[in-house]
Amino acid sequence: MSKHILIVDDDPLMTRSLAFNLQRAGYVTSTAATAEMALDLIHNKQPDAILLDIGLPGMDGLEALREFQRETIAPIIFVTARRREFDEIQGLELGADDYITKPFDNDVLLARLKSVLRRWNASRDSVLTRQSLQVGDLFLNPESRSAQIKGRELELAPKEFDLLLALAQEAGSFVSIEQLLSRIWGADWIGESQTVYVHIRWLREKIENDPAHPQRLLTVKGVGYKLVVVQDNLPA
Fold first, then answer.
1. CB–CB of 140/132 below 8 Å?
2. Is the backbone peptide bond immediately before 103 cis, with ω within 30 degrees of 0?
3. Could you report the per-residue pLDDT of 12-71, keeping only the tens digit for each?
4. How does DSSP classify residue 154?
5. Distance CA 134, CA 113 (A)
6. 216 DSSP assignment
7. What three-state secondary structure class fits 212?
8. Contact by Cβ (8 Å): 76, 97
9. Are 51 and 8 in contact (CB under 8 A)?
10. Quick one: fold of 131-227?
């Protein structure tokens, strides 16, 4: 079955060109000129990947990324004319799966899209073959991508869940930053390791009683991170 790609861009020429080239490559496409329109489309039909412009009218791409992550686990690639390093770093740290700037060669975009879909599908298939995990009072269900502490549901973004799952699978042992990057962002990831630090910080805000003094998710500088059993870290 052909992969469904959602294009979110307010430039009609760019949208038509992207849709045409993607369809020629065998993809099915949907288009939206705003993030709000894209959310409606996502509710009706889940995409396999999203190409998202940052400079959208109304809700911009960085805001839209968070909203999309609440509605879909599809990988998201920023496609934008902005070249500021800040945008790239912020977008990837927020959980985008890749970033490409306009103008771009169509073959390059197709290759990047194929790479993102390949590692996303490999990660999803791997996750779905694993049973639920429990680390003390922390419970994770890979199939439903849900996590609970003492029965309290955690609201985790897709990359946050993947990070927590990877650490839970190695509970009690340190996992290096390089291993986390390879397992969650893919072996061909070319971004900065800082994205792991940012996601660890966000994760601690959701699973620690005092994120500044973590007891559940520990760090050893120069080694990596370790998830440990803490029975009374958070109230029920």
1. yes
2. yes
3. 998 999 999 999 999 999 999 999 999 989 888 889 999 998 888 888 877 888 888 777
4. P
5. 34
6. S
7. coil
8. yes
9. yes
10. Arc Repressor Mutant, subunit A (1.10.10)
